[in-house]
């Protein structure tokens, strides 16, 4: 089967995390993602992120940039603009993850490219979007987690504000941008007209406050921090310490609460009026958790997981990262793959979760900086040796 996005070409002015994560999703689905790297800056800064870094290659960069091609292009060079316009005429999408005021300055907006390509979809993923008082400010995941209230929600009740263990705003922003690009592409192919997509990390983080945001905006709700990563209102829905580790238990339905009571050997809890329904269990949370914590501490993790599985109660071990990568489900689904990298050797990385159809998924290592400059410009723009040589001598692709 043809890969879903095999006929899509994306020009990506991107670096570091959120932007490359967005286009990685498209590349994993078969899109030809052409990564534009600034030769004056040594390309994507992600190439130099420690601890596993050699020269211009790193495991960080590889994580975000498999299945892409790379060209070197100085967009500030007086002749770089002409190359950009030629490329824009030949691709479907121009994507950037720059500060909100930069896309227009660099000529990456729809009204600046539509004359050459009326169907072009121009997507900007920035910290705060292209308008508003913070449009000119840079923004990183950690900052967004603080500004959007995430840190106030996370951590132990008496602990400091805490970020999530991963850069979830960056990753979510990448997914949001990918969805916006696909929506823009669909409309452009249907109606023949492209558009701008203005995506911000801050608004992504706000949107992911979900029902907590709705509660706060509507009822001035102030969400408390809960111990052991507990749900704000559903009990039990949290971590519990066992005799030798931790398990996560999720009773998001009344039937699951009943099943849990059976697995615990405490069927009388079902008839206890204090714990009769969601609201009662939330009201009497402390009393219930005292009972449950004592019960879970009596047995080992494996014992509890077997009992809970037999009872049909959603549960899982709290794994280390290494253990998660070796989990039986990980192995059964081939969720960790090996990519042969020409400089880093065999790289084991997590496969794309995007399983569309039954065909083979692409699996090429991240590109060397500027590796595909000549090939892309010949293929998409029709440049010949003379023109490439002239541009190279002029410094459009970096210093000779």
Q: Any overview of this molecule?
A:
This protein is of the alpha/beta class and 400 residues long. The protein contains 18 helices and 13 strands. Strand 3 (53-54) and strand 4 form a beta hairpin. Helix 1 (18-28) packs across helix 8 (168-191), helix 8 packs across helix 9 (201-207) and helix 11 (254-264) packs across helix 14. The longest helix is centred in the middle third of the chain and has 24 residues, at 168-191. It is elongated, with a radius of gyration of 25 Å.
Order of strands side by side in the largest beta sheet?
A: 5-2-1-6-7-8
Q: How many β-strands, per DSSP?
A: 13
- The structural class is alpha/beta
Q: What value does the average pLDDT take?
A: 96
Largest sheet report = 6 strands, parallel
Q: How large is the share of residues in beta strands?
A: 15-25%
Q: Quickly count the helices.
A: 18
Rg calc: 25 Å
Helix content: 25-40%
**Unreliable stretches:** none
Principal-axis shape equals elongated
For the structure shown, list the relevant keywords.
400 residues, alpha/beta, 6-stranded parallel β-sheet, 3-stranded antiparallel β-sheet, 13 strands, 40% helix
In short:
The protein has about 400 residues and is an alpha/beta fold.
Topology:
Blueprint: E1 9-13, H1 18-28, E2 32-37, E3 53-54, E4 57-58, H2 59-65, E5 68-72, H3 80-90, E6 93-96, H4 102-105, H5 110-113, E7 121-126, H6 141-147, H7 150-153, H8 168-191, E8 195-200, H9 201-207, H10 210-219, E9 237-241, E10 246-250, H11 254-264, H12 278-283, H13 285-296, H14 301-311, E11 315-317, H15 321-325, H16 328-332, E12 336-341, E13 345-350, H17 373-381, H18 385-394
Parallel strand pairs: 1-2, 1-6, 2-5, 6-7, 7-8
Antiparallel strand pairs: 3-4, 9-10, 10-11, 12-13
């Amino acid at each position: 089967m043809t890969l879903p996005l095999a006929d899509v070409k994306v020009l990506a002015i991107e670096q570091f995390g959120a932007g490359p994560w967005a286009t990685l999703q498209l590349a994993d689905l078969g899109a030809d993602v052409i990564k534009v790297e600034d030769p004056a800056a040594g390309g994507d800064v992600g190439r130099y992120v420690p601890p596993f870094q050699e020269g211009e290659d790193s495991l960080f960069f590889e994580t975000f940039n498999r299945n892409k091609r790379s060209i070197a292009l100085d967009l500030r060079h007086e002749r770089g603009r002409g190359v950009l316009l030629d490329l824009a005429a030949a691709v479907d999408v121009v994507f950037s993850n720059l500060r909100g005021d930069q896309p227009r300055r660099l000529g990456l907006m729809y009204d600046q490219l539509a004359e050459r390509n009326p169907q072009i979809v121009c997507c900007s993923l920035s910290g705060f979007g292209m308008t508003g008082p913070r449009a000119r400010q840079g923004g990183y995941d950690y900052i967004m987690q603080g500004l959007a209230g995430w840190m106030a929600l996370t951590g132990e009740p008496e602990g400091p504000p805490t970020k999530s263990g991963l850069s979830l705003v960056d990753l979510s922003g990448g997914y949001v941008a990918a969805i916006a690009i696909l929506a823009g592409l669909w409309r452009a192919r249907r109606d023949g007209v492209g558009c701008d997509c203005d995506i911000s990390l801050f608004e992504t983080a706000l949107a992911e406050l979900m029902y907590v945001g709705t509660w706060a905006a509507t009822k001035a709700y102030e969400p408390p921090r809960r111990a052991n990563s507990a749900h704000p209102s559903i009990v039990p829905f949290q971590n519990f310490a066992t005799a030798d580790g931790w398990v996560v238990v999720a009773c998001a339905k009344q039937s699951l609460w009943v099943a849990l009571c059976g697995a615990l050997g405490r069927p009388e809890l079902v008839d206890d009026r204090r714990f009769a329904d969601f609201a009662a269990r939330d009201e009497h949370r402390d009393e219930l958790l005292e009972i449950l914590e004592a019960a879970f501490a009596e047995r080992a993790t494996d014992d509890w997981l077997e009992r809970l599985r037999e009872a049909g109660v959603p549960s899982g071990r709290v794994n280390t990262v290494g253990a998660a990568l070796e989990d039986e489900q990980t192995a059964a689904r081939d969720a960790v793959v090996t990519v042969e990298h020409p400089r880093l050797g065999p790289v084991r990385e997590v496969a794309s979760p995007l399983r569309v159809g039954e065909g083979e998924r692409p699996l090429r290592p991240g590109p060397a900086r500027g590796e595909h400059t000549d090939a892309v410009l010949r293929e998409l723009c029709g440049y010949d040796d003379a023109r490439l040589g002239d541009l190279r001598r002029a410094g459009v692709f970096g210093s000779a």
